[in-house]
TrEMBL record:
Annotated region described as Disordered, given as residue ranges: 404-494
Source organism, top-level taxon: Bacteria
Name this protein carries in UniProt: Uncharacterized protein
Segments forming domain CusB-like beta-barrel: 243-317
């Protein structure tokens, strides 16, 4: 390989710079803890959403966010688990806080339910004899009926025979027989008005009318005109909507809060902002093994028919208020596998994860049995980021005493001493460079005893001077830099 004179100069300069910088580079970037320069000195820069991502200079995190500085004065003065965040970063992360309150907490149960008929007001219509439905006036479920309205006409041979027997008893003037036949008609479902008609008209009717006993709507219609019915058949059901039930399911852990007579409220999607008030009417004795819930029945007055059967409702059941307890918003609680935590907001932009013991939950509030005091400020938004950083800081503190020095894995073990130590170079070999002649230059064109002088010098500081000299002298016994300007025939031919 052939080198020109400028190339030799450049290589020597690079080597000189490397040696000088290696001797001059400080031994460590460590900053002694507690020094005056530690105030507001940045220890490192870390990602806002990944505390394990740290760098020695500002930059971007893998998520494209600006790295956050961590100061030496803050790290030295904080306890384990305390996180300090710049106020600008607090605003950027959208961190919000709320105060822990000391006040009675109502055991409020929030659940959902479905509106149904009040089964206490449902009237089932059956015939007491076999027969055929004729002249059915109810056409479909949901039809409204009024008390005394004709529902259908029934033809039954049994009823025809009973009427004839009653008329025969009237003619016989046998009071005992007359009374027995009258009771038989009543037992077969013949209305008192129809019996009085028999007394007046003395004529048998082939079809007897069945009347409604209450106002309401037809909840169920089980027959059609012309069908043959028996006493066991449910011809129709009539329900009153002046009062309805709401059936709800309550989780097992909240079942102890349920008591009959408790106040309950419902909200409907089609009536936003309107709450209807009722009460707990009945609590079913069994727990559903599939859903692990307890069923309860709520009763609501419904004179305006605001609640309609099968409507979906959001339900709130209010239990007895507790004595004053410390409670925080539910969103401030960080639930863990073994412990629950909140993030305390400390003065001067500091935060700390605080383990707490949780009591009852009521709506959007959670009782805190231990770990917090009234008026403590807790983080309600962005607490997961702070909690993650706090856990990392606590873990590092448990491993050993904190050190303000910041090093990176890329430079581990590469620190240079601040003072250059004397070194023995006696066993080092110099650099040998053979410079071939340019093309077209023969050996005869190079004069005998040809010599040149080069001086390459780089001034690094007052103590280190590198000089490379090539004098017009015989170097046959030296191992230093050798520059051979003889033409290399083989290299020239290449």
């Amino acid at each position: 390989m052939k080198f020109t004179v400028p190339t030799v100069i450049a290589i020597a300069a690079v080597l000189a710079v490397g040696v000088a910088l290696g001797r001059w580079w400080p031994a460590s970037t460590d900053t002694p803890a507690g020094s005056d320069t530690a105030e507001k000195e940045v220890l490192y820069w870390q990602a806002p959403m990944d505390a394990s991502f740290r760098r020695d200079a500002p930059g971007k995190s893998p998520m494209g966010m600006d790295l956050v500085p961590v100061y030496a004065v803050d790290a030295a003065s904080e306890d384990a688990g305390v996180v300090s965040i710049d106020p600008r970063i607090v605003n950027n992360l959208g961190i919000r806080t709320a105060s822990a309150e000391l006040s009675p907490l109502s055991r409020r149960i929030e659940t959902v339910g479905y509106v149904g008929y009040d089964e206490d007001t449902v009237h089932h219509v059956h015939t007491r004899v076999d027969g055929w439905i004729e002249e059915l006036s109810i056409k479909a479920s949901g039809d409204r009926v009024q008390r005394g309205q004709v529902l259908f006409a029934l033809y039954s041979p049994t009823l025809v025979n009973a009427q004839e027997e009653y008329l025969a008893a009237l003619k016989s003037r046998n009071s005992a027989l007359h009374e027995a036949s009258r009771e038989r008609l009543a037992a077969l479902g013949v209305a008192a008005d129809e019996i009085e008609r028999l007394d007046r008209e003395r004529s048998v009717k082939q079809r007897l009318q069945v009347l409604a006993h209450s106002d309401g709507v037809v909840a169920h219609l089980g027959v059609r005109e012309g069908i043959y019915v028996t006493p066991s058949m449910d011809v129709m059901s009539i329900a009153n909507l002046d009062r309805v039930w709401v059936l709800v399911e309550v989780f097992e852990r909240q079942s102890a809060w349920l008591k009959e007579g408790q106040k309950a409220e419902v909200e409907l999607d089609y009536l936003p902002g309107v709450r209807l008030t009722g009460e707990v009417d009945y609590i079913y004795p069994e727990l559903d093994s599939g859903t692990r819930t307890v069923k309860a029945r709520l009763r609501f007055d419904n004179a305006g028919e605001t609640l309609r059967p099968n409507m979906f409702a959001r339900v709130m059941i209010y239990g007895t208020p507790t004595s004053p307890v410390v409670h925080v918003p539910r969103e401030a609680l960080i639930r863990g596998g073994e412990t629950n935590r909140v993030v305390l907001a400390l003065p001067d932009g500091k935060f700390r994860a605080q383990p707490v013991e949780v009591g009852i939950e009521a709506g959007d509030r959670v009782e805190i049995l231990s770990g917090l005091s009234a008026d403590d400020s807790v983080v309600t938004s962005g607490q997961f980021l702070i909690d993650s950083e706090s856990n990392i800081e606590s873990a590092l503190a448990r491993l050993g005493p904190a050190d303000n020095a910041v090093t990176t894995d890329d430079h581990a073990g590469h620190a240079m001493p601040s003072e250059p130590a004397p070194q023995d170079h006696s066993g080092h070999h110099g650099m040998s460079m053979n410079h071939g002649a340019d093309r077209g230059v023969s050996d005869e064109q190079v004069p005998e005893n040809h010599s040149e002088h080069y001086d390459v010098s780089l001034e690094c500081d007052a103590e280190h001077r590198i000089s490379a000299e090539h004098e017009s002298q015989d170097h046959s016994e030296h191992e230093g830099m050798s520059m051979d300007h003889a033409a290399d025939k083989e290299e020239s031919q290449r």
